[in-house]
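Thread: quick sanity check before group meeting

JM: Hey all, I'm pulling together slides for Thursday and realized we never actually wrote out the predicted structure for the chain we discussed last week. Dropping the sequence here so it's in one place. If anyone has concerns about the input, flag it before I start.
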Amino acid sequence: MGYKQDFIEIFTQNIQREGAKELLDWMQTTDFFTAPASTKFHCACEGGLVQHSVNVYHTLMERYFDPETDSRESFAICGLLHDLCKAQFYKTSTRNVKNEATGAWEKQPFYAVEDQFPYGHGEKSVYLVERFVRLKPSEAMAIRWHMGGFDDAARGGSFAISLAYERYPLAVKLHLADLESTYLREKGTSAVNKK
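JM (edit): ok, ran it. Output follows.
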């Protein structure tokens, strides 16, 4: 099974909230299932965004799900949709790169950012999800702060991230699952043409 099919299966089996079908239908009109997850770091390849989303969901479930206190639906929403902001965010372009063997300049493909709606990272994902599905406060906080200290607001000295992590364990769990997926599970997935 491919990442898109895995994503759709996890989504439809676990997310039953009003508007979920409409959200998934809308996602299929975007490049979410073909876009990269980054320009050159993790999953910088066609389909990298859906691959990363599925990886984060699996990491979240394997490492942090407690059946006594956690919700499968919340974990699916957060794991699968935390980077929804990256749909319609990248474009494929080319640049000249010198071939060291021949000395000739060659056009090489690369991903560039073309943000049509510069609303921030986590907050943009929350905004896009909530156009269709109402999030619980813990889900909104988890998605908003999943970047942790890599978020611009956190680097600016905001205390909101500490309060969010203190009050909403799901936010901490999503951040850790995102880090583990990005830096440990997705090594070597950064070539533009890699499948």
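AS: nice. The chain has one domain: 3-87+119-185. The radius of gyration is 17 Å.
JM: adding both to the slides.
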